[in-house]
Amino acid sequence: xxxxxxxxxxxxxxxxxxxxxxxxxxxxxxxxxxxxxxxxxxxxxxxxxxxxxxxxxxxxxxxxxxxxxxxxxxxxxxxxxxxxxxxxxxxxxxxxxxxxxxxxxxxxxxxxxxxxxxxxxxxxxxxxxxxxxxxxxxxxxxxxxxxxxxxxxxxxxxxxxxxxxxxxxxxxxxxxxxxxxxxxxxxxxxxxxxxxxxxxxxxxxxxxxxxxxxxxxxxxxxxxxxxxxxxxxxxxxxxxxxxxxxxxxxxxxxxxxxxxxxxxxxxxxxxxxxxxxxxxxxxxxxxxxxxxxxxxxxxxxxxxxxxxxxxxxxx
Length: 315
Fold this sequence. Notes:
Elements: H1 14-30, H2 43-50, H3 73-78, H4 80-91, E1 97-107, E2 110-117, E3 125-132, E4 141-149, H5 162-165, E5 186-188, H6 192-197, E6 204-206, H7 208-219, H8 228-232, E7 243-245, E8 254-257, E9 268-270
Antiparallel strand pairs: 1-2, 2-3, 3-4, 5-6, 7-8, 8-9
């Protein structure tokens, strides 16, 4: 059973509509529109009213004016003796203070005086003194003094992080290097099938950049073709029986030396490297002197004196 009933509004009759229209016309005729009375204005006021009016905005906060000081550059520049006293208060030794070099104005109330610095180890450095004068009639104030490098001053080089300064020659066999996650010489070994087939127990392997860097370093190093031993060697390592080629891409150009008599033993050498310990070298030993037969000297007589161990040496 429905709880609510909806009723449709009835449409007004034609007679009701005509009566409403008639009453509306009568009201509009009786009511006159309100018109403001004209106000007399002067010519100046009318001219001002004719100008276009701009939209009013909220007033901005007025910024405080920057204080303006008098220019005291000349007074500061002439206070050389006061600047010298400022350096002397810091150094306490006149022998370390040289002649006045120059004056620089920072602004109208602040200036810098520079003196030569005579200190061992500080070549080209200068004593710098800051003087200040704000209001006319006040005394010039010594702000601070410091030792600063000049234009040609000897300064330490720019800081280089330790990891960038470290060289392979600085590492000993017991040192450890920190882990470098984004090493450009390595790349992750992501292929699990190849990892199992090749029995590679490594998470990362050499990247193409790392391979090129290694090849260039080995080939241009002390075990490449540009060495004194290679220039005088008759044969290259590629034809030596002690040359063990490396596997993979490196085997086309590099191998390990297995000759115990060679200075390259146990090291990686290039295939066009060479030394005098080649397996096929056949060098004849040259005699540097003429061998003579032994002769027994029966002419010279040597007398051996018996000495007493208990005897005094002076006697």
